[in-house]
Structures are given as C-alpha cells and as structure tokens.
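note to self: dont lose this again. the chain is below, predicted strucutre after it. 367 aa total, dont forget to put it in the shared folder this time
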Amino acid sequence: MKKPGIVWYVLSAIAVLGLFSYSHADQVIRLPEHDRMQEGTIKGPFVHRNLQLFLIHGKPQLEQRRYLTLGEAMEMNIVVVAETGSVQQLTIENKSKDKTVFIHAGDVVKGGRQDRTIRHDLILPPLSGPVAVGSMCVESGRWGMRGREDAARFSTSKNMLTSRALRRSSRESGDQRAVWDEIERQQTMLGENVSELRGYDVEVRDARSRTSLELTLGSQDLQKVIAEYEAELKPLLDDKTNVLGFVFAINGEINTAEVYNNESLFRALWPRLLRAAAVEAVSEYRKGKEFEPVCASDLPDFFKKALSGTVAVEHPHETTVLRTYTTATTILFETLDAEADSTWIHKTFINKGDVVVPLTPEPLLRR
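---
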C-alpha cells in the first residue's frame, strides 16, 4: 500500500460560500460556511490493483448519537422490511423503543417478490410504525417466492449498490430500466474479469435467478477476488482514530466519496462500503491498462465543484432532510438529522464521469 499524500480541508455542511485557500507546502485547504466549521484531513492513497482509497479524518459533530445500521437492526429483529406489491415502494418499521436506525441509500434487501435496494437515506426513529420508502428492483423477472424465502418480507444482505451508475440511477433519476441495464452490464464485466483474474472461465450469474445482483455478488469466485482487496484495505481503520469516511478512485479516476458525521456509524458501514467499491473495481479491471493514479492534491477541486451545485431539498420523513447538489460533472447527496438540529449526518459525493442517466425513463417492460 502507498501513503504519499495528506490533504487538510474543511467538511462543509452546505455549499461553498467562498474560495479555497491552498498552500502547496502544507496542502492546507479552508472552506468557509455560514454554519459551524469542521476540519478534517485526507490521508492516502492506499492502493490495491486498480482501486485507490483516501481516508477522511475529522472530529464528528454527532458522535453522541447512536445509529444502528439497517443490517444490524434486522439481525436484532427490531426492524421489519415488508413487501407492498409495488416495485418502487417498501415499508420499513422500527419496533425498538429506544434505538434509532440509519437506513443507507443503496442498502440491498433480499427476498420478497424481488430483491430491492433502498433509494434514499432515512433516519428511522424508535417505534416508527410502518414507513413507506422508495425502492428499486435489483432482480428483474421474478415476482414471487424464491426457494424458501418469505415473499412478504425481506432479510438482510451484506451488500450495497456496486457502481456509481447504479447509485445515480437509483437516487438521482429513479430509472428502473437503467438499474436493470447496469446490473446486466456489470454482471457481464464481472464474469469476464473474474475469469481473467482466476485463470479459468467463471459464470457469476446464479441459476436460481440470473438477473439477481444479490446472488451474483454471492459467487464464490467473485468473493475470492474481492477477498484480495479486503485483505489489503479493510484493516486500514484498525490503528486509526477519528475516521469519518473515504474517497475512492478506480483506474485513475475519482469515483465516489462517502462521509459521515458519526465515526461509529462509518465503522459499522465500512465492510459494506469497501466491498461495494471493490466489486466496482473488479468490474472495471483491465489487464495491462496503465493509468495515472489520483493524488491527494487532485481532490480539493472535486469537493469544491460538488459543493457549488444547484440545490434541491426533500423531506421524506419528519426525522430526515435530503439535499441534492447538482453540477454538470458532480452530484452531492446530503442527509440531515432533523432531530439533531438538522446537522448533517451523511454526504455522498459522486463524480459523474461518462455515466449518462436518461432524463425520461422508458416504459417498464420487466417488473
């Protein structure tokens, strides 16, 4: 692993109100904001094959709040995710009397009539009652029980959406066809690249449901390749403190940054986040491809651009405020905890790259 650069910058809670100050000697960056200032550092890159990671360090503002992840809550049997009969909507209920659950955009749940992903972040309070949430199908074709799985309810998965095209199609446009098409494309690329890396022909699609992203990610050969990335990169947090998130780049291009205002929440999510990034890196692997690696000094302009976007605001639940900042080249999804003085809890920065999301979804031909 390589550790050549460190960048200091401020994790702004809202759009940039002024210019960066930048010192090449110390690589110091300052972002002003009308709210509280929050300083952080970026350290890295840490590299395996075609995947580069940069860790974001800082002082969280919401560490005193305890959030369970959806996976943790489902394993504790305090959250129920139920089928509604609509592809693009599920219900989630928190039955705990004292635990708050953070539902992460891109979380995958399996079972029901089709495997689904959750479209947007949601802070689910104790004794929430059934709450309707937007969802996208990540398994076309099936519309009924699979094996012995419950067709009325869902079980937890260790997976999240595994490409920025999927993240954008789900969160930004809600384009179901684009989600299916990207899953099919990624399955094809994973099959080719896992075969290359394993040295023999590999079929990553599962005969039980060849369109299921969840079952594809369970491929034994794919898991062995992903384990190589995890062995190198997962221990990065072990000897570090105040880690709030990470940025990753694939094939020398900035892809996505995930930042949290609660270190415990980030650490709980880290295995899933890393796995998703590794799967995307494998799907984009090109044997013999040379690329210019991303440096820490390349990141300030990415953050600055994302924070300058046009803002749209949604209120999906009384506990949750969503802000979306859009520019021609970036998109930033920001989630605020309304029960914590509307302080931000999660930011996803995406470099759009060459991904094109249709503005007008075509009629659905598959469920």
